[in-house]
Amino acid sequence: MTQIKVKTNILQANDEVAGQLKERFRAKGITVINLISSPGAGKTTLLEHSIPRLTEKYRVGVIEGDILTTRDADRIAKLNVPVVQIETKGACHLDANMVLKAAEQLDLDNLDFIIIENVGNLVCPATFELAEDAKVVVLSIAEGSDKPAKYPTIFTRAKACILNKMDLLPYSNFSLDDFYQDIKRINPQMEVFEVAALQETGLDSWLKWLEGMMVNGGQKD
Amino acid sequence: MTQIKVKTNILQANDEVAGQLKERFRAKGITVINLISSPGAGKTTLLEHSIPRLTEKYRVGVIEGDILTTRDADRIAKLNVPVVQIETKGACHLDANMVLKAAEQLDLDNLDFIIIENVGNLVCPATFELAEDAKVVVLSIAEGSDKPAKYPTIFTRAKACILNKMDLLPYSNFSLDDFYQDIKRINPQMEVFEVAALQETGLDSWLKWLEGMMVNGGQKD
Questions:
Q1: What is the SS3 assignment for B197?
Q2: Is the pTM of this model over 0.80?
Q3: Any idea where the domains of chain B sit in the sequence?
Q4: Model pLDDT for residues B154-168, shown as the tens digit of each residue
Q5: Which of B2, B122, B198, B216 has the most other CB atoms within 10 Å of its CB?
Q6: Do residue B119 and residue A122 have CB atoms under 8 angstroms apart?
Q7: Nearest CB to B67 within list A90, A150, A167
Q8: Confidence check on the interface: ipTM exceeds 0.95, yes or no
Q9: Nearest in space to B114 (alpha carbons), one of B195, B187, B45, B29
Q10: How far is A29 from chain B (nearest CA, A)?
Q11: Burial (0-12, 13-18, 19+ Cβ within 10 Å), A75
Q12: CATH T-level assignment (fold) for domain A2-212
């Protein structure tokens, strides 16, 4: 019983920080996306191919969560957008306090989007609010079509799903029918974008959806 | 400080249970493997294609960890081996107490191997001892060659790595050179088996290694 209480308190404390931070982002007109997936589903590659198109119209900052190494942050920094690295040193997810500290390193008066790339983990990040306007889950075709049923927390809470590495469909046993049937049951409102990020296919609808999510209606200051 | 202490105590308490359980498995001559990977790396498929060959010579029981659904346990049960399902209902890893309870459902006098399929998560399961003789990490080619450097805990602690879905190598940007360079740095003693479980290629060396791991030297009662 004690353990459950501790967990509840941790989540409550996190949600309070997240709530305050969200008000601050809203006041600045910044839309915040929390990108969650298993290791290697393609979050960083998705950003590498989405951000250059997004920055044609909008100002984008990135918060990179990793257990160790700055590899992903280094890749994003090459896109000439502000990047803040959070190295969790073992922690399996980002929390609102980490994002609060990272946000202090960003020029919030000059951003339309903050994209948070969470630690590669389909489980733990799902329950921690990071002041985001939307969680987006990335699922790789190679991971299999049974994942929404097996990891329902993130698939219930995400507003959109990037079904990535669509180019691997012919070489895998992923069933699109099974996948969409489970999504219909678990989270029928969730948007699904079929994408091959490395090949830059399917990105248009995803980028349009991101624009539609903008808290300031896409208006620049 | 309090939080770290709680975590230490949880791990200590877990290790005590694991230590006692390991003595029990040893006394029965049972070799225990703890299979860890990201969601969708292919743990269940690996077992589906390894167990029928293993049971030609040995008696195998399986403990299946999943957050939700009995899908994997159902797949393993079709192989006509004893399977115990642990549905963690949200928990991101198995612990020694869960394995202790699951083991009570198995006929320990008639087993040579227990294979534990952990929850799909490359982070949290790495630090919890489950009375295993070896942790084995499964990495799918689709996840990318940077994963050992980014998730060093499991790649340091595993005695073997199944590099799975080798058939996807031509369609991915996975670099075998980068992968082996990182392994050499992180855990040079680790055995790596290049496998395509679904196509049943590369399984011989892996099965031979499993035999070599046997605590009773492969002797039946």
A1: helix
A2: yes
A3: 2-212
A4: 999 999 999 999 999
A5: B122
A6: no
A7: A150
A8: no
A9: B29
A10: 33
A11: middle
A12: Rossmann fold (3.40.50)
